[in-house]
Structures are given as structure tokens and as C-alpha cells.
Design goal:
heterodimer; A: alpha/beta; Rossmann fold; 6-stranded mixed sheet; 10 strands; about 35% helix; globular; B: mainly alpha; two-stranded antiparallel sheet; binds adenosine-5'-triphosphate; binds magnesium ion
Chain lengths: ~270, ~350
Amino acid sequence: MVAMVDSPADVRPDGAEAPVLLAVQNVSLAFGGVKAISDISFDIREGEIRAIIGPNGAGKTSMLNVINGFYHPQEGTITFQGKVRRRMRPYEAARSGIARTFQNVALFRGMTTLDNIMSGRTLMMRKNFFWQALRLGPALNEEIEHRRRVEEIIDFLEIEHIRKTPVGKLPYGLQKRVELGRALAMEPRLLLLDEPMAGMNLEEKEDMSRFILDVNQQFGTTIALIEHDMGVVMDISDRVVVLDYGKKIGDGPPDVVRANQDVIDAYLGVPHE
Amino acid sequence: MFYREAGQYKTSYAADMAVFPIRQDRIGIAVILAVAFVGIPLFASDFLLTSIMIPFLIFALATIGLNILTGYCGQLSLGTGAFMGVGAYACYKLTSYFPDTNILVWIVASGFFSAAVGVVFGLPSLRIKGFYLAVATLAAQFFLEWAFIRIPWLYNANASGAIEVASRTGFGITLTGPAAGALPRYFAVLAIVVVMTWIASNLLRGRIGRSFMMIRDMDIAAELIGVRPLHTKLLAFAVSSFYCGVAGAMMVFFWLGAAEPSAFSINLSFQILFMVILGGLGSLIGCFMGAAFIWILPVVIRMVPEVLGLSVEAATVEHVNFVIVGALIIAILIVEPHGLARMWQILKQKLRVWPFPY
Ligand SMILES: Nc1ncnc2c1ncn2[C@@H]1O[C@H](COP(=O)(O)OP(=O)(O)OP(=O)(O)O)[C@@H](O)[C@H]1O
Ligand SMILES: [Mg+2]
């Protein structure tokens, strides 16, 4: 029993024992006059599924953009794996193990499903230009080795049949799945999912929820999830942070957050003073 | 019916990743190579070699160069002609200083010079995209053309202002200059084009090609996966210009024999761009199709009056030529905006399911 505590999946549901993987401290972000995020702090613990919720325009996507270096906050710091930073480039975030999916699918439309997911392996492929040019020996072996890993992801997400299809031709639900596959191919420490179930029907949502839970439990990947469907959030997340107009109005386990009066007001649209 | 992969199972990822996973395609490419290396040399006239095959192959290589940049990496360039010029002038200077070195060495080495120039003029691509980048590369085109005219050192201060190719050898055979036969020149061009096409196909199918396409399709997502945009774009400029530079050097040394700066004008850039677009952006086979269409078709049309015994003025033939080729280009692009390569793919698909519609 004791040995199992190490496995991140087993620290749930309250996650109290797990160390902090990412800490957001007093972050503020403004676009000209628009304050997208004001003075927000929260943390994400290793191995948990952390939901970020809030009404439209609350600053959820902006928060993810800050975490993976796409926006640079005017104030505050981000601590990831013990390293404190103010600003960094997105590719540095990728290097340190942060992957994400986008609210509006951002796949490489001209490439096949397979190539899209292979692209997630880019940072792990090391063979230099000259080996690549010859595509013999080491370069070919590397390509095959990563192909094998990618095929595992394709099996896991049950998208074998669209392996060679250009993603531009896929229906929306499958595109979202391929995008998850691409993020998984990076083998991230922290996976940021921006509304992975938006625009899906019930069945697709159930599939996607299952994939997210499996990723979390089988690979021990820490997940930050933006989602509007409260049912899903309550079911799969360990802790929830609630944003409204760029401010944090709630933080805690799902049932606690659901009972919070501020949160109820925000969702029911009680006018702000 | 004739083109089916039924029964050809792939049992390894290596087999699935091959350039031509289908047996019929492998046979096809073997036949093409046999014709190119054996058939054509055995039967072709000097005219066919010098006026059709050699320029066709050289243009195909330049088209691959531009396609890597524009079709695969999504960076529009109008400087192709100038980058080809850099290759030609670099080769000219190198072989002037070292006349005894195998000319093939300098042909390939000149690619590095145009790669370096390409990287410099690719720097704006970090900030600007699309048409604005095209305008920046246009500046490269005009600046380099100016340099070819104004810097006498580049053409060894020849009175004519042109570079004239002297007699040079490779492996003991005279390959350039008036004394060089058509056959050795053809073999030199063919060998270089085949090897460089193979290398391009290797690069484009692996990590590097994928990172080019990632930048082309969605640069923001590419960056979040760990692709550095500037790095990748400059690499595309370098590889692309390398190909164009080698093509430019071959154009002067194995085909024209001499060239004035106007040989590398914006017209050449456009000609290569047409070949890329007509053949198909992002397709290597398309490069050969586009080059064949735009180079070989006019030559064939030019021969028609002669064959039919008509006496038409050369100028008239040229005009008719422009009209026919122009109209065909428009027609093809209306039918299939993705170019000849896509048409070929669709045709193959039709053959595969024939006699059923799908
Ligand atoms: N690049 C930008 N430039 C200007 N304003 C921006 C930018 N990105 C976001 N904003 C603004 O910041 C605020 C928060 O936007 P954000 O996209 O983070 O909201 P969200 O919580 O993700 O909303 P939704 O649920 O609609 O996705 C909005 O008012 C938005 O207009
Ligand atoms: Mg959003």
C-alpha cells in the first residue's frame, strides 16, 4: 500500500500529498486597457486534473497562454518544476515539458494525422541534418522508433482508420482527438487542454473524458483543463479554479466550488457592482 | 485494375515509410531511371539533349528549390532568379581561381554561396509574411541583379559584362565549354539532379520536412511544440537557395555556356514560380511535371509548323506559343488548383478503383 502512494494517480482525490508542479503567483495581464487577468494565484499539483472554469471572456485561455509563454504577464511569476520565471518563449515551455491543445483546433491542416502526431516528437528527434538528408542508419532508426511510439498513441485514441488522412478533411470531433494525440506525443509533464470537448455531442464527450482520465491515470500526466460543461468538470477534475472578469472567485474541490455563492452568481449572471 | 496494391501488405514501419510503398510505383520509377540513364543517351539526338532534357532537368531542380521554400515552408519568394545567379557567379569565380579542380565540385560548392545569401535575405521572414515577404525577396532580386552588373570582379571584368564558361573537366572528361559534348553534360546534370532529388525527398519526409510544414500550416502551434520559427525558416531559405544555386550554376555551365546578368532576371524567378504552382505546391513529383510542362511543351509547339511543312514566321509561332501555354496553365489551375501532381494522384486513385467510380 505504501509503495503505491508514489504513483500520482493514487494521491487523489484531494491531492494533498502531491508536490506542486506549477505555481502561478500574482499574475496580471492587460491588453492595452483591457485587464484580461488581474492578480491571480493558484497552483497545480503533480498528477492531478485541475479544471479552470468561468464565463466567456473570464481570462481562461489567456491564463494558459501565460503558462506556456505565449503571453508575457506584466506582473507576477510562474514557477514550474521549482524554476521561477517571468517570461519565456513558447518553445522553451515545450522544452520544459508543457504541451497544450487549443480552443479553436490548431492542427497542421496540410499534414496527415500521422504526421501531425509525429510532429509532437520533434524535440525528441536528435539526428542532425546530414543524417536526415541520407535517411539511412541512425536517422531511419530514429524515425521508426518514434513512429512506433506514435502508433501507440494512435491505438490509444482509436484513430487508426484516419492515420493517412489529411487532418483538414476530418470532422471536428476527430480533429480534437488528433490534437490531443499531438500533445500526448510530446510526453509532457503538464498538459493544458483548452475546451477539449467544445462542440461535441454527448458520445464524443464521453470518449474524450475517458481519454483524459486514462492519460492522467496511465501516464501520470498532470492536466489543466478548461471546460464549460459543468457535468464533465465535476466528474473528472480533482480541483477547480473559477475565474470571472480576470479575477479568481473560487478555488477548491468540485463540490466545494459548486456551493460557493460567488461562483453561482457569476454563472447566473448576477450584475457586478 | 492495373494499379492496385491489393495483396501488398506492409509488415514493418520502414516499409510503410518508403517513398514508393506501392510496387507499381517502384517499377515505374525504375523504368523512368532506366530511360533517363540508358534509353535517352542511346537514342537521343544532340538537340533533344541540349534543348530539352538538360534545361528541363535544371529547371526541375530550381523548382524543387523554390518548392521547398514556398510549397513546404510557406514562404513566398520572388528571388529565385537571383539566387540561381549567385550560384552561377560563385561557380564562375571558383573555377577561375582553381581551374584544375573537378568542375562538379565547384558546381555543388556554389550552392553553399547562394545558401548563405539566401539566409541573409531570409532574415525578414521572421517579421513579415506572404506578399510582404515576397516584396522583400523582390528587393533581393533587384539588389543581386544590380551586383551582377556593377561589380566587375564577379565577371572577371570581361568587356562583354557576361560570364563565359571556359573548358573544364571532371573525372578526366571535358564537361563544360564549347568542346564539351552533349552526352557528358547530360550525364552530369542527370546525376546531380537525381541525387539532389533523393536528398530532398529524405529531408522532407523526416523531422526537418515536418518542421517546415508545421511553420507553413500553423506557426503558432509549431512554436508551442518546440519548433523555433526563425531557425526553421532560415533553414528553409538555406536549403532552397542551395538547390537554386546549384541549378543556376548548371544552367550556365552545362547548358547556356555564357550568361549576362539579365539571364537571372525577375523573369526567371517567375518562370520557376509558375513551374512550382503548375506542378503543385508541396510536391516533388510536381516539380518535374511543372518543369516539363512549361519547358518542353513550348519546344514541341515550336516544332509543329516544321513537321507539318507550314512556313510560319518564328515570331508568330512564339506568339501562338504564349497563347496556348498560357491558356493551358489557366485551364489546368481552374480544374485543379493544386496542380498537376494532384491531378496525377486523382488519376492514380481512379485507376486503382477502376472500373468502379469509387
Ligand atoms: N490577444 C488579445 N488581444 C486583446 N485582448 C485579448 C487578447 N486575448 C484575450 N483578450 C481579452 O482578454 C479577455 C479574456 O479572454 P480569454 O480568451 O482569456 O477568455 P476565456 O475565458 O478563454 O473565454 P472563452 O470562454 O470565451 O474562451 C477577453 O476580454 C478578451 O477580449
Ligand atoms: Mg478561451
